[in-house]
Amino acid sequence: MKPAPIKDTIAFEDLEKIDIRVGTIIVVSEVEQSTKLMKLIVDFGDHTRSILAGIKKERPNPKEIENQQALFVVNLPEKKMAGEISQGMLFDIGYADKINPCLAMPEVPVPNGSRAG
After folding, report:
1. Reported confidence tier of residue 117, pLDDT bands at 50, 70, 90
2. Gap between the Cα atoms of 50 and 59, Å rounded
3. How is domain 34-103 classified at the architecture level of CATH?
4. 3-state class (DSSP) for residue 97
5. Nearest CA-CA partner of 28 in 41, 43, 47
6. Rg value, the chain, Cα
7. What is the pLDDT of residues 82-105, one digit of tens each?
8. Could you give the C-alpha distances from 93 to 11, 45, 48, 90, 105, in angstroms and in order?
9. What is the DSSP string of 8-71?
10. Are 48 and 41 in contact (CB under 8 A)?
11. Residue 98 CB partners (closer than 8 Å, separation 6+)
12. Which of 14, 23, 43, 66 is the most buried (most CB within 10 A)?
């Protein structure tokens, strides 16, 4: 893989607008109307969310990420895809570079809802 060029510089204040939090993936299930999406139910400590992620074809067994902590962008507007609502975005590594993606996750367990940054 050849690393992509670094994007244009942004203001630190722009970065502070993105709310990235740790959540535990408690359920991974099929999205019937999609060949790509899986539905993740994620525990953020004080609430759970349904987050759709395009991981169906990336892993032989997408359910293997159940009970794993990962990073999620939680302050995006809700989006309807394949008849389901997504309330955030899985923050993974590799997809943009066309390599097999993996979870961005804390190295040790932390409380669900912990903020990155």
Report:
1. confident
2. 20
3. Beta Barrel (2.40)
4. helix
5. 41
6. 15
7. 999 999 999 999 988 989 889 999
8. 23, 24, 23, 10, 10
9. PP--HHHHHT--EEEEEEEEEEE-TT-SS-EEEEEE-SS-EEEEEES-TTT-S-GGGGTT-EEE
10. yes
11. 1
12. 23
Strands 48-53 and 38-43: antiparallel
Instruction: Return the structure tokens found at 38.
Output: 């899986």
pLDDT digits (tens, 9 = 90+) for 55-75: 999 888 999 999 999 999 999
Tokens in use for 65? 């990420």
CB 38 within 8 A of CB 31: yes
Contact 24, 42 (CB under 8 A): yes
Tally of CA atoms within 13 A in the half-sphere of 63 that contains its CB: 4
Q: What percent of the chain has a predicted confidence (pLDDT) above 90?
A: 89
% pLDDT > 70, the chain:
100
Number of residues that make up the chain = 117
The amino acid sitting at 81 is: M
Q: Which two tokens stand for residue 104?
A: 């961005």
